[in-house]
Amino acid sequence: EPLCRSGVWRFSELLPFAPPEKIVTIGEGQTPLIATDGVAKYVGTNPGTLFLEYEGMNPSGSFKDNGMTAAFTHAHMIGAKRAACASTGNTSASLALYCCSSKLMQAVIFIGSGKISYGKLSQALDYGALTIQIAGDFDDAMLRVQQVSKELGIYLVNSVNPFRLEGQKTIMFRVLESLDWQIPDWIVVPGGNLGNSSAFGKAFHELHALGLIDRIPRLAVINAAGANTLNSLYNDNGLRWNGGRPDQAIINKYYAGLDAASSKADTIASAIEINRPVNLMKCLRALDWCDGVVREVTDQQMLDAKAQVGANGFGCEPASAASVAGAKLLREQGVIAPSDRVVCILTGHQLKDPTATIAYHTTDQEEFNRVLGKRGVSRAAFANR
Ligand code: F0G
């Protein structure tokens, strides 16, 4: 009976690893796909063509629950008692929620210092996760949690975990279902650790191989300009999947350059403030399967897009708005046509990260400077709308 309430497990034939009695669900994946002409106008596509997949409506407020129910179920299958992740906040909130509602495991979370929004941190604390702040950023926390979980035998639920991606495939199943299986032209998704984009590619590849769809939508992965490893590798360095043999030298050289410059990711979209995406390879494969494109957008472009999403009756956090900002950019560049049907994924709820939103709209110059001052953001675009 609980399976009926899950927007993930009702597709269990397409993620066939879990015996029904082991499945841990909290009713994730009941998320709407909504057409919005206000946002279509902003992006520059025709009325009726722009859809928002509202993943902020999940129980923990982000798309992470789609993958967490799958990874958590697998952890339960193998008898894990503790589960860990590094997080910019949403993975940790999701893990903490599955742990405390199921009482099956203790959550152990690693966060970078000062790198998590209060909304997300407060979730982990309320849900009773063991919360460890490390000196460093997400990339450092990711390294640390991989070492610690290996040494201590703690189950790791970051999206290096393949079961996470199995669950996240269902976001695309639901998008297609909502569109009556009329394949859209574009799926536009923010790129951080690149789990979603990898999972979406796998979803379409499998649906196509099974003969359930005859065309694969194009995938657009959108980085923040301040955390643009994928965009740099893909567009500036020509890195491609290349039949499973991407040029490792390009990747090594890029990361060596980051190390040499002690370069850290830096964006207002803290959710995707990641320089070393763990799913880089899988994402390259997804881009290959889906005739994909990669772009980066500035903090200004994300915050402007976010305000438009809000003004049209939806909410999302800054990182999520990368999808809408990216769609607008691709439309301006003529890559997306006015008649194309475009699905933008809103990955996290508006209330997750109110600090940037308030700073963007405030008339208090001090508050504006504190949060956005060094980011070259102005309010003009929204004020003149
Ligand atoms: N959007 C939001 C709201 C996120 O929280 C994340 C990732 C992404 C997009 C990027 O997704 O990794 O699949 O490319 N947040 C992770 C976390 C890193 O720890 O919560 P991705």
Automatic annotation (TrEMBL):
GO terms for biological process, alphabetical: threonine biosynthetic process
Q: Which cofactor does it need?
A: pyridoxal 5'-phosphate
* Residues with PTM N6-(pyridoxal phosphate)lysine: 64
Asked whether the keyword Lyase is assigned, the reply is: yes
Q: Which residues form a coiled coil?
A: none
Q: What class of enzyme is it?
A: lyase
Q: What is this protein called?
A: Threonine synthase
| Species this protein is from | Lacipirellula limnantheis
- Its gene name is thrC
Please tell me where this chain falls within the complete protein, as first and last residue plus total length. Answer: 68 to 452 of 471
